Amino acid sequence: MRRRTLLGGAAATAAAAASSSLLTGCGASGDGSGVPTLDFLSLAWQKESMAANKALVAQWNKNHPEVHVRYVQGSWDNVHDQLLTSFEGGAAPDIIHDEAIDLTDFGYGGYLADLTDLIPADLRRRIPDSAWATSRFGGGLYGVPFLQEPWVLIANRTLLDRAGIALPTEERPWSWAEFEDVAKELTHHGSGGAERFGTAWAMKSPVNATVNLSMSMGGRILYRRKDGTPEVRLGAADSAFPELIRRQVRTDRTASPSALGMGGGDTLPGFFAGRYAMLPLGFSYRQQVQQQAPDHFDWVTLPLPVGTRAPDGGRAQGVSPQTLSVAKSCPHPKEAAAFIAFMTQTAHLVQLARGDWLVPTGDAALHDPSLNTAKDGWSTGVAVAQHLTASPVLGMRGYPEWKDKIATPALQRYYSGGTDLDGLRGQLVRDGNRIFERYRN
Amino acid sequence: MSSTATPARDTSAAPHARAGRRPPRRRTAGRLAGRTGQYLALLCYVVFLAFPLLWLVSTAFKSPQELGSVDPTWLPRHPTLANFRTAIDEQPLLRSALNSLLVSVVTAVVSVTIAVPAAYVMVRFRSVVSRLGTGWVLVSQMFPFVLVIIPLFLVLKNLHLVDSLPGLIIVYVVWNLPFALWMLQGYVKAVPMSLEEAASIDGCGRLRTLHSVVLPLLVPGLVATLMFSFVTAWNEFFFALVLLKSPEKQTMSVILTHFLGAEGAADLGPLAAASVLATLPSLLFFAFLQKRLVSGAMTGAVKG
User: Fold this and answer.
1) Three-class SS of residue A360?
2) CA-atom Rg of chain B in angstroms
3) A208 neighbors B262 (Cβ within 8 angstroms)
């Protein structure tokens, strides 16, 4: 993240030096045949997902000889730096697979094409307004949201059954209070058996999770003033979710303290060994569970608990979907938009969603029978997806700096007991708003 | 050394003096224990150094279930080649390895070819210019690559060298050169001037002296610099990521990141398998040059 800041500074310096001629007329290449070639930077990384993407590109090239698309493999690990450098150098890929949260800097920076007038009407209708809102800011539309990841509970069914706990359903999910009670029942400390925690919060990168899941309790943490500028607040509704995690870790001891420093995948070995009974995780982690779980390990995907007295029945979650964008430097934006429309056709959305173990944004795709099956928890994710809404962090300039410099260390200290709620509020709000202030105008 | 050893062999020494000395068997046992301790310490050190590599190899042969186990084992319980098959099927490892090999070998050879005469001049022809040059080389090492990457990208773009292996090689040579120069300066300094003077008296010109007298003595330095340049180019990631756009030109270090997902998720087995394959050329390169390094060190021994 430090590199991102440094690189951002370097980019700003170099931008002044870069001639405008470098920033135009690049991004697409030809092979000498006169057929324009568009580079599609894909971040698909799982085997099924890569296969699905490559198959769709091959299908496009077969059916559209007038525009050739070249599949370029990228990596989530470094896509921001790679794109920033290639944008500045005027050699960016034409069609870009990324995440809505990453579009803010690039959209405001003038690197992405405004898709408002480029996308066809049927594509506009395929995806609901709540999803379009994730990629619209500053008066422009900078990406087509196509896949999204809700949070769910992945639970050890054997342990829950043994404790006589009735599983929640999509129609009747647990409240957060019920989840805390269940976690207490499943926790086992002391002698006479292996230590077990009811749950484990993987909070290596705590900010997105905290902000997005606060929405289920009616909080947001990040707000917009009337003039559209960001503001950090930590009222009672905003702090309810962080307080819950802290209570489980520090007071009730129903959540593992060591898991706070882990990424989602790091908690899985403990889950398989029965040390954690339930894991709140992103929907795509089912793929790792399915692949790595020992034989006869019985697991189940449950809806995330809901808040009481919160909008949308407490089922709302913030989300930052995966997106497809067009670089402003692309000399064939209409063709690029046509390719995106092709990739996001309902059948293709389903194909891509299954490949990535994610939920599609398209209404019709969500009703596809292959996604509405209880197998591997697909139907749970589809049910939760109805309540997904744009994450409060989207479209906020200065968010990456606030997240890296202020919110991440402050939340990690709070969760691990290094500071109290007042300390957290002081850092998040006072120091945070100073940062956002610098990004005004 | 021989003068201090003589009294010990003096058989006419007084019996009580001999009685104070350890008998040969005990001395041999002590030496054996000492040597065993040395080897044990060496073994510990080698294991410490090799542990990451051994763990990588072990991981590459484990099944997803074993990788997800909370109790990791040193050796795979059920060794499998599936990770290697997946890695090779999913990503163009062979092509990227060839790209990396080409880039690394050319970078190493060009860097050393330029650095040798430069280092010689900087050491043997001391002047304001050489001192300024040395200082500038040092200063150039202080710029982090994130600071130079965008201007560099623009320069290469103007030269039509973006997305080309020669462009990447030029960047690597420029990036490696200062350190190679510093390394070689030390080796050149170690070559006694008297040898060059003797060669000069024998009628050798400057080039002949460099070729026939200095270069053979620099072999250990050349090998060390070659190794350094090769490994640096082989492992380098960020320049390759940014400068190479075409999939068919990407190098091994970039391809390895394709096994990584968002938020630290990774396809661990295939990643480990691909990493093992990526390590092999470096190991072979070292194995090949190691003899040269040692024999070069012998060659460099000069009678005072």
Assistant:
1) strand
2) 27
3) no
Give residue A151's identity as a one-letter amino acid code. Answer: W
Single pTM value for the model: 0.83
Amino acid (one-letter) located at A331: P
A262 touches chain B (CB under 8 A): no
Beta-bridged to residue A145, according to DSSP, are A323
Q: pLDDT tens-digit profile of A119-177?
A: 999 999 999 999 999 999 989 999 999 999 999 999 999 999 999 999 999 999 999 99
Residue pair A346/A146 in contact (Cβ under 8 Å)? The answer is no
Total count of domains within chain A: 2
Give the C-alpha distances (Å, rounded to integers) separating A162 from A59, A158, A187, A357. 50, 6, 13, 29
Asked if residue A173 and residue A138 are part of one domain, the reply reads no
Which residues in A lie closer than 8 A to residue B154 (C-beta atoms)? 14, 17-18, 22, 88-89
> Can you tell me whether residue A332 is helix, strand or coil?
coil
CA-to-CA distance for B259 and B256, rounded, in angstroms? Answer: 6
| pLDDT tens string A413-436 | 999 999 999 999 999 999 999 999
| Min distance B102 CA to chain A CA atoms (Å) | 21
Residues A308 and A220 in one domain: yes
Contact check, Cβ <8 Å, B68/A294: yes
Question: Has domain B91-299 been given CATH number 3.30.300.130?
Answer: no
Range of the domain at A404: 151-318+396-438
